[in-house]
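Propose amino acids for all 457 sites.
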């Protein structure tokens, strides 16, 4: 069988997660992907030299760095994770000569559409097969209200897209139709160059890294509660953005993999260091604690404007994880963690119902379908009811033995590899290469804790 091309056009490389003995030791996952993208973008829009420590050197973030260079930024890698970004500053971006190619990176593409939309330049955006399938209208429509124009687009508002920005974006008030930090951030970045105020209202609060970082760089931005779970964010246009030092904490969405691996692999005891615990990213921790997981947060501190902690994890035994009902209102604080939660739920006692997952259908893959298919080929009973996923736990036992289709989705790949560490039979994923988009050190980090992987013959 010929391997299909992966995200970078290379042949796919399958990998197996193998039954492992107790995981032990300490690890530090790479820098947070969301914060990494934003540090490069704000560094590009600021005056002066921004120093970044702990930048995630994954393909997604490197694509954003390349796009920033195409818009005129001088970006230098000084040592592992230590990068500097110099200008050109808000209002002074250059017209890019080549396509901005974001590979697999939805966040990079969408946030940069906001940046381009608020400048008098025209840029062509493109990405890999996964990114070309993802909806962009949700970004293009509000950017059009600010004054940007879509000159070309593929079917249904998809990449490749040619976007013409404007020199004076209109001040608008916009209510996001779904909880999405990407929509919110694109609008705020677009509104930076406006002469007036940009207001974004979200009825479910999404991750707030853009607002926090804008504040640190000197913008006037106010975030107020709105309704029961929402926020209203007001940004004053034309701030003087000043370069800053950004320390990128460890990514909770990557920490989720060793965390769940230790919970389901009997006898494990690990520490995950320096993980961001921003409440808008902590839904997985809340859910796992409700399931009875043995997790303790220690050494809580502030690191570069974000809350962080060291996470101590011990196997509960997996026989003690219990199924729970995860409310829809929690979805935005754990949107990227459902694939790995599904792996944990497969080992739990009883049923886990995850509610309100419609947004999972438009991630790097249709994650709802990919999770369900992956569970089924590994002997786990599950069902999709409307936008809910129901997983029937095997009370500590999962058959495994399945071949999982990843659909170019890094989190599907990592979640099922983790499942393989504790399943009766190996779990094989059809491709591992796209793991490099968000967690290039996944395999050595996990192997350092005792996880076993093998390439199929
Ligand atoms: C992200 C926001 C989320 C998340 C993505 C990163 C961000 O997407 O799934 O991985 O950095 O803003 P949505 O805002 O579209 O939910």
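Proposal:
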């Amino acid at each position: 069988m010929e391997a299909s091309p992966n995200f970078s056009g290379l042949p796919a490389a399958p990998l197996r997660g193998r039954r492992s003995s107790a995981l032990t030791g300490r690890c530090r996952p790479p820098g947070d992907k969301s914060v990494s993208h934003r540090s490069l973008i704000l560094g590009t829009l600021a005056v002066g030299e921004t120093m970044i420590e702990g930048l995630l050197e994954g393909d997604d973030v490197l694509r954003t760095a390349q796009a920033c260079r195409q818009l005129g930024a001088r970006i230098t890698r000084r040592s592992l994770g230590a990068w500097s970004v110099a200008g050109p500053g808000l209002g002074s971006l250059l017209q890019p000569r080549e396509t901005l190619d974001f590979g697999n990176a939805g966040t990079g593409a969408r946030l940069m559409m906001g940046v381009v939309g608020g400048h008098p330049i025209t840029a062509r955006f493109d990405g890999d097969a996964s990114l070309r399938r993802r909806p962009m209208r949700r970004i293009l429509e509000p950017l059009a209200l600010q004054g940007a124009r879509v000159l070309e687009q593929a079917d249904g508002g998809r990449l490749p897209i040619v976007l013409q920005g404007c020199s004076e974006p209109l001040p608008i008030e916009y209510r996001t139709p779904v909880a999405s930090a990407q929509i919110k951030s694109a609008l705020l970045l677009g509104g930076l160059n406006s002469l007036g105020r940009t207001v974004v209202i979200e009825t479910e609060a999404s991750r707030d890294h853009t607002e926090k970082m804008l504040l640190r760089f000197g913008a006037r931005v106010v975030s107020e509660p709105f309704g029961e779970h929402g926020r209203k964010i007001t940004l004053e246009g034309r701030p003087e953005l000043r370069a800053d030092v950004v320390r990128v904490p460890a990514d909770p969405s990557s920490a989720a993999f060793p965390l769940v691996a230790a919970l389901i692999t009997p006898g494990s005891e690990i520490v995950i260091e320096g993980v961001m615990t921003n409440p808008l990213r902590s839904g997985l921790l809340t859910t796992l604690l409700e399931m009875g997981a043995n997790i303790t947060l220690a050494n809580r501190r502030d690191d570069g404007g974000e809350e962080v902690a060291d996470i101590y994890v011990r196997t509960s035994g997996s026989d003690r994880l219990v199924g729970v009902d995860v409310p829809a209102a929690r979805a935005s604080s754990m949107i990227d963690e459902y694939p790995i939660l599904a792996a944990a739920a497969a080992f739990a006692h009883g049923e886990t119902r995850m509610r309100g997952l419609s947004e999972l259908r438009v991630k790097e893959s249709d994650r709802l379908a990919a999770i369900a298919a992956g569970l089924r080929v590994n002997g786990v009973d599950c069902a999709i009811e409307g936008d809910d996923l129901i997983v029937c736990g095997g009370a500590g036992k999962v058959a495994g033995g399945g071949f999982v289709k990843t659909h170019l989705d890094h989190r599907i790949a990592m979640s099922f590899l983790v499942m393989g560490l504790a399943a009766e039979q190996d779990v094989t994923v059809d491709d591992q290469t796209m793991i490099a988009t968000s967690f290039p050190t996944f395999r050595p980090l996990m192997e350092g804790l005792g996880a076993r992987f093998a390439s199929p013959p």
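The longest helix spans residues 33-45. The domain at 33-247 is CATH 3.65.10.10 (UDP-n-acetylglucosamine1-carboxyvinyl-transferase; Chain).
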